[in-house]
Amino acid sequence: MYPLNDKIKDLEPYTPVEGGFRIHLDANESFLPLPDSFLEEWSNTLGHLSLNRYPDPAARDLCKAFAEHYQVPEECVVAGNGSDELITVLFTAFLQRGEAFATLEPDFSMYAFNGYLQENRHVAIPKKADYSLDVEQIIQTCEQENVRLLIFSNPGNPTSLVCPREEIRRLVRGVSALVVLDEAYMDFSDQSLLEECQAYDNLLILRTCSKAFGLAALRLGFAVGQKRLVDAVKAVKSPYNVNTLSQSLGTLVLRYPQAIREALEKILHSREQLTAGLQELCRVFPNRFTLLPSATNFAALHMAEGKELYQYLGEQGIAVRYTGGLVRITCGTSQENQVVLAKIREFLENRGA
């Protein structure tokens, strides 16, 4: 039998929440389907797509639409098959075997996973007790450990907190490492550095269409930064990494900013409904859990009984996530929010003080 090497022999595939759940509030997707008008317009273009040919390797129309939507230079944008692919590409391109990378824990688990596969040294820098970032400690640790790549999410996943842009600026300027700033949830906040993408020679910003745009199934991600860095990513990525169908529909959606704004308003309204309900539960059941301020499309709960709540909700047919010591609940439809709030109340009542 062919022997697997030590690096992969005990690995298990990433498994999202599966099963017969009636409500899915676990993956931080948008609960809004694309408007029928979008799908109708897109269907009219399908006959003109050359599906027998490879897609545009540069995804030029898609990158142009993204650049116009966010008001950044087109040459500063590269598209990927979701942010996950781009994260893998960045670890492959900017790190050599044995070099150090840093994460700010807790954070998105795929950062550390990619570093492990590339056989890099992981420097895990803890966040403060309140899950905020200690910028001075991060800078000192990165310099002491000779960190070559620092990657973290802002707003944070799973913490839901956003670090002010002036602090992120200080961090980027304070380290010699390449900073990969994952702004997957920044459409729900206002602290982005996208407009300053050309100001730093050690910054790449990641964005996604999976959260605010309702395009999780398309797997569309983007890296934005100085042209020199973006060109390096283009040279390393797979030539035809974004398929023609994803490029076509993604381009169409990005060219309707008003529809995107309307969808975003609905998601933010859902966030207000969910967090208001959780705040009321905090009042009724004091000291049972802490609700972190949300700058994302999910709520994060710190509670001693977090794992038990996660399991209880699963038994009720409601999928949420328990990660990084936090219960993470995606904003859903009004009805879904009401159901999950009722079940959390039920859990708190049944378990007593």
Structure described in brief:
By secondary structure, this protein is an alpha/beta fold.
- The helix/strand series, from N terminus to C terminus, equals EHHEHEHEHEHEEEHHHEEHEEEH
Kindly estimate the percentage of residues that lie in beta strands according to DSSP.
15-25%
**Net shape:** globular
Helix content: 25-40%
**Residue ranges: pLDDT <50 for 5 or more in a row?**
none
Trace the largest sheet across and list its strands. Answer: 2-8-7-6-5-3-4
Oligomer: single chain
Roughly how many Å is the radius of gyration?
A: 21 Å
Characterise the protein shown here.
The protein is α/β, with parallel strands linked by helices. It is 40% helix and 17% strand. It has helices at residues 36-46, 60-70, 82-94, 109-117, 135-144, 165-174, 227-236, 244-254, 257-284, 306-315, 334-351; strands at 23-24, 77-81, 100-105, 121-126, 147-153, 178-182, 203-208, 220-225, 290-291, 298-302, 318-319, 321-323, 326-330. A 7-stranded mixed β-sheet has the order 2-8-7-6-5-3-4, sandwiched between helices. The longest helix is centred in the C-terminal third of the chain and has 28 residues, at 257-284. The chain starts with 22 loop residues before the first strand and ends with a helix.
Which structural traits does this protein have?
353 residues, alpha/beta, 13 strands, globular
Secondary structure blueprint with pairings:
Blueprint: E1 23-24, H1 36-46, H2 60-70, E2 77-81, H3 82-94, E3 100-105, H4 109-117, E4 121-126, H5 135-144, E5 147-153, H6 165-174, E6 178-182, E7 203-208, E8 220-225, H7 227-236, H8 244-254, H9 257-284, E9 290-291, E10 298-302, H10 306-315, E11 318-319, E12 321-323, E13 326-330, H11 334-351
Parallel strand pairs: 1-11, 3-4, 3-5, 5-6, 6-7
Antiparallel strand pairs: 2-8, 7-8, 9-10, 10-13, 12-13
Helix pairs in contact: 1-8, 2-8, 3-4, 5-6, 9-11
